[in-house]
Design brief:
Layout: H1 2-17, E1 34-41, E2 47-51, H2 64-73, E3 81-83, H3 86-90, E4 107-109, H4 110-118, H5 123-133, H6 138-151, H7 174-185, H8 188-194, E5 198-201, E6 211-214, E7 232-240, E8 244-253, E9 256-265, E10 267-268, E11 277-278, H9 279-294, E12 295-301, E13 308-313, E14 320-325, E15 329-334, E16 343-346, E17 354-356, E18 364-372, E19 375-384, H10 392-405, H11 407-454
Parallel strand pairs: 13-17
Antiparallel strand pairs: 1-2, 1-9, 3-4, 5-6, 7-8, 8-9, 10-11, 12-15, 13-14, 14-19, 16-18, 18-19
Helix pairs in contact: 2-4, 2-5, 4-5, 5-6
């Protein structure tokens, strides 16, 4: 009985815990300094922060991650020299956009153009590479970009150019960017270029001096303390009128890896030091530092943990069976959270589950959410912790009782009571009685008739 009472109280507490506000691995900024903020774990896909991750927005120069990976995957010789077509430069006339100062007719290797593209965020390099990989047709390359996005499962993305300048038909979402950037990071050359802070372009046929490139991603710049984040390994920035200030980046430390996207961030003097700050960098740094300081991968479900119990019938030994998680589960959770202080919220009311013995250890009884502070961390099957044998006497008694209560038996009983029994009475009691009475009546009439005849 005590076990039953505890199970009821435990189930109520679990159900009540769903209403408790809080977070598991979810971070909410105190102030929203950007239209879109999205951070995920590259280790298990856990979402750390999500603000408008499904919103379609302009990607600006973050577009160049796709230009880069398509170039890398479709080029067999990165030292191949490309002669710059004049039209690739002229397409940018009047845009006042970021370039590497590339001149028509200049000869650069594919590798050099990739560094110009990703480090300097050069739009001229984007057009040149799109023309080169597209076989002399930038539109062909753009078709490749959209095919690439579709193959990655990106449903909210469409590209209209290779550089990211504003266009009504050029948009993406943070969720789609995660899919594309995660794919790109698997390529070692891409990761190397995206993590390069400074590089140089030696003299060419058009320049007699070395050009030095510095990454536009200030999260990599130790010279800017407000932005520099020691954990950041790669990234790509973007800035246009429609997109605002944007940055996608990845960071690693102590075996933990994250990807963060901030889009359409504000640009203002947040600390009142007389200098406007790019909040895309500020927010990214803040998120990374919080995650590396506060999150750990911990075991949140252990098969030996008692979760609750459900009633069991037809057993001589037990009238209940205890439940535990089916498997061990790990998750990215705040420091200090483990299998001992999470809550399990069954999707069924345990007090309403009644099992019939036998029950075998490991039998799946129901499914439950693993929660912390009201947020779902993961899900797990709840299984029986021990065997519960069936009592033969109770089973036979229950079988008889169920048979008596079953509708076929009740129908049979009705037939017997209303059809067979009346028929039996009529056939073997009423009918013989009538025959005997009739026989007696006939005999009496016969005697009387004989008396009359004699007279």
């Amino acid at each position: 009985m005590k076990k039953r009472i505890f199970s009821l109280i435990f189930s109520i507490l679990l159900l009540f815990s769903c209403a408790v506000p809080g977070f598991a691995a979810l971070y909410t900024p105190e102030t929203q300094e950007a239209d879109v903020i999205y951070m995920v774990s590259l280790d298990n896909g856990a979402v750390i922060c999500d603000i408008n991750s499904e919103k379609q927005v302009a990607p600006a120069s973050m577009t160049k991650i796709v230009t880069a990976i398509l170039t890398i995957e479709n080029c067999t010789n990165f030292d191949q020299v490309v002669t710059v077509p004049e039209y690739c430069i002229r397409l940018l006339d009047g845009t006042n956009s970021s370039t590497a100062g590339i001149i028509p007719g200049e000869e650069l290797t594919v590798r050099q153009l990739l560094y110009c593209l990703m480090v300097q965020s050069a739009n001229d390099a984007a057009n040149i590479l799109a023309d080169f990989i597209g076989g002399g047709d930038i539109d062909t390359f753009i078709e490749m970009m959209n095919a690439f996005a579709s193959e990655r499962g990106c449903t909210g993305t469409h590209f209209a150019n290779a550089h990211g300048l504003d266009n009504d038909k050029h948009y993406t979402t943070a969720q789609d960017l995660v899919k594309m950037y995660t794919y790109c990071l698997q390529n070692s050359l891409f990761a190397e270029i995206a993590g390069t802070f400074t590089t140089e372009i030696p003299p060419t046929n058009k320049y007699d001096y070395t050009r030095y490139l510095r990454n536009t991603n200030s999260l990599l710049n130790p010279g800017i303390p407000d932005y520099y984040c020691e954990y950041v390994k790669t990234g790509k920035t973007g800035t246009t009128d429609a997109a605002g200030h944007c940055v996608i980046s990845s960071a690693s430390s102590d075996g933990y890896n994250y990807l963060c996207i901030v889009m359409n961030a504000k640009f203002y003097d947040v600390d009142e030091d007389g200098v406007d700050e790019n909040m895309a960098f500020v927010e990214s740094k803040k998120l990374y530092e919080w995650a590396f300081r506060n999150l750990r991968i911990q075991e949140v479900a252990n098969p030996s943990t008692y979760v609750g119990e459900v009633a069991v019938r037809l057993s001589k030994e037990y009238d209940y069976v205890s439940l535990a998680p089916e498997t061990s589960i790990t998750a990215l959770v705040p420091v200090g959270v483990n299998a001992e202080n999470v809550l399990y919220v069954p999707y069924e009311d345990l007090t309403k589950i009644v099992l019939d013995a036998p029950v075998c250890k490991g039998d799946v009884i129901c499914r439950a959410a693993i929660t912390y502070a009201g947020e779902t961390i993961d899900e797990v099957n709840l299984v029986a912790m021990f065997d519960v044998k069936r009592s033969t006497v109770k089973y036979i008694g229950d079988l008889l009782l169920r048979t008596v209560k079953s509708w076929p038996f009740l129908v049979l009983l009705g037939v017997i009571f209303f059809v067979v029994l009346p028929g039996f009475i009529i056939l073997f009691i009423v009918a013989p009685a009538r025959r005997r009475k009739k026989k007696n009546t006939v005999r009496m009439v016969s005697v009387k008739d004989m008396d009359k005849k004699e007279k």
